[in-house]
Write a structure and sequence with these properties.
The protein is elongated. The longest helix has 15 residues. About 30% of the residues lie in helices and about 25% in strands. Strand 2 and strand 3 form a beta hairpin. A four-stranded antiparallel sheet has the order 1-2-3-4. It has a four-stranded antiparallel sheet with strand order 7-8-9-10, covered by helices on one side. It is of the alpha+beta class.
Length: about 200
Amino acid sequence: MAIKDLSGQDILNVHVNYLDHVARRSYWNVTCVCGVNFVVDANRLKQNKKFISCGNNEYHNIITKDEIKNYPHIYNTYRAYMDRVYNEHNQDYKSYGMRGITVSDEFKNYYKFKKWAIENGYDENLTLDRIDVNGNYSSDNVRWATSKEQALNKRHSTDKGIGIYKRSSGNYTAIVKRNQKAVSLGTFNTFEEAFNKRQKYLNNK
């Protein structure tokens, strides 16, 4: 049976270079979008899948079972912030994704987050804390902190809208929602000043 020439085709995430060899079925030399060159049989190229694995898990952010087993706390931390920011069905989404909190491109990749974590004070007894509670999940705005440190950096809510947020500096920022986005009314020395500013804004709306 004649072998269909797949050379030059782009299939999912790989470019087919040439026929490598034939052993019962055809095997093709391909190059992944990440740059990895490997040989794959024709059946894998024809399967109706979204991705052809090249083994470069870090580039493609493929998290294996062994990875989860070896680094459970880092993995669970990664899944938790990704879920609360991007999963509208997460119970905490309203306090994160809905407020406009995002995740940096670096931290969207589990392996890059793991590298940052290990190099920046990771400990199984610590949890990930955003330094600026109104800021995003990024390497310049997160740290590993104790529960006590996190409590001192928590967001103070009010009975109207988004509320008052305590910053790592000890100051307080007043926030309101405008067109479905969080808007800062300024940063103040005390909770009372921030609260009064916010109430004055709301009363004048």
